[in-house]
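Suppose a colleague, Dr. K., hands you the sequence of a protein chain of 306 amino acids and asks what its three-dimensional shape might be. Before reaching for any lab equipment, you can write down a predicted structure in token form. Begin with the sequence itself:
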Amino acid sequence: MSNNDPSEVLLEYKGPAVEDGFISADRMIQAVSGINNAYKKFAAKKKIPVSKLPELRLSTKSGSWELIGVIAAVGYTADKLGITEFSRNFFGEVGTQLALKLFAKKEEIKLADKPQIESGVMYVILINSKGEQIKVNAEAWEFFKSKLIDKEISQLVSPIEESKIDTLKYAYKTPRANAEISINQQDRQYLVEEEQPKVDLDEDFDDSKAETLPPLKGRLVAYNALASKYPFQFQPKGEQEGVKKFNIPCAVDEDDVNKFIELLKKAREGNFIINGIGIKDDSGLFKKMKITNVEEDRKPTLFDDE
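The predicted structure, expressed as tokens, is then:
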């Protein structure tokens, strides 16, 4: 990257599919759309009239494929409208969202302490499910909670594919920072938003096609009285066998509806373990379920083995 541009990013994809310096058109479109659309969304969120989008220059070299993005918004008008400051920090803002998603790994993250003000900027300290902490500016935290550029991050990372593209390096420089984030195939699952499977909710639950569910931890998050066949939605927690973090339509025995409505009301109190049977889609994931029993997700104690 050059030292003359006020803001610049390098996205470098490596793997067998790009060893000759070329990348498929579909993957290129995903990468370019991701950074371009993120720019528009950030600009709109900050109420900045975008007079020019990033200038995206493409370069290739043996063994990888690179996308270099440059923003050069300078001059009195740009300064007056706040575009220069925004442009200088945009790639860093995308980098912060990437870092936060890797930090969260699709689990809940929350405030660990009260916000702090340093040099006129408000920062927050966040903690993840492993007890690790990270400090980011408060605005970045709000963007993360609103999922502002989740789709665009998914586009940037989606070219990573087993046996084709192994890694993505996101390196950026701004007047305030220079940083590099490396993303591998294992990280992909935390950054790419998979499409919600389509399920025919008018179709009867066929017990003959179902198999026993492994005990699944999660919450009942929705009830629709008009959906007579699948009135409940179950949201799995974290990584578990046979499911992804999508809401899964659930059938229950008619006599148990009121009982599960009460459980739905208690969803904020914690997770439950559900048992029953489920029908899988072509990818091997459960697409709909019939719940037969629900247990409280109780933490083990010293006396559990006695």
